[in-house]
């Protein structure tokens, strides 16, 4: 079984309890992170927003709460997660404002310069070939598009004690579970000509920190 098939199977299996598991994993901070992402990009009426690896659609929905006159496209390659997203969209009366696309982040089914805003909550870390996905995000972003991505990483360097405990006790388990840790957001974006405007750490737990990167596309 290829790595991608494995990721899809894992998320299919987890779909029924995904949202609960995510609350637990983030110690109930997940909606806070979604709101941080949705706030920082300051979506304007009529703008087109891409929700990277949308899963059950909750990040795209948070964006629509901030700006009800935007149009969100959520892409993901796990059908089970997207069925759940469809239910969430219905429950939030967002049909017509939130479109769902089944597809691969490494090969996006959109033409160049399609989106004004790109948002991602824990949507990049699990992608097998992240370099490809970064290149695709830049390709479909319009010049001047705003990007906000948040990922779970190790506590920042200054938090020495937490970082040390995290690195020795927590990280090996996370690596075993997810197969990766501390994905880079700044360097790959900068490599593709994106200006990083802001990097913030939120909640420096021993379990991990959430790192937000806000960037603007120059092309
Ligand atoms: C942590 S979950 C989604 C989080 C979601 N953004 C949220 O706010 O809850 C990660 C998602 O990435 C999707 N995924 C992983 N690799 C992908 C790829 N190459 N293309 C599309 N979706 C992918 C999985 O199917 C899964 O739904």
Summarize this structure as a short list of keywords or feature phrases.
single chain; about 220 residues; alpha/beta; Rossmann fold; 8 helices; 7 strands; about 25% strand; globular; binds S-adenosylmethionine
Biggest pleated-sheet summary: 7 strands, mixed
Q: Provide mean pLDDT, rounded.
A: 94
Q: Any guess at the CATH architecture?
A: 3-Layer(aba) Sandwich
Order of helices and strands: HHHEHEHEEHEHHEE
Approximately how much helix is present in the residues?
A: 40-55%
Kindly identify the CATH topology: Rossmann fold
Tell me the structural class. Answer: alpha/beta
What would you call the shape? globular
Rounded to an integer in angstroms, the radius of gyration calculated over CA atoms is: 16 Å
End-to-end separation in angstroms reads: 38 Å
Number of helices: 8
CATH class: Alpha Beta
The share of residues in extended strands comes to 15-25%
Instruction: Name the CATH homologous superfamily.
Output: Vaccinia Virus protein VP39
Number of strands: 7
Structure ligands: S-adenosylmethionine
Number of domains: 1
Question: Unreliable runs, pLDDT <50, ≥5 residues?
Answer: none
Strand order, sheet with most strands: 3-2-1-4-5-7-6
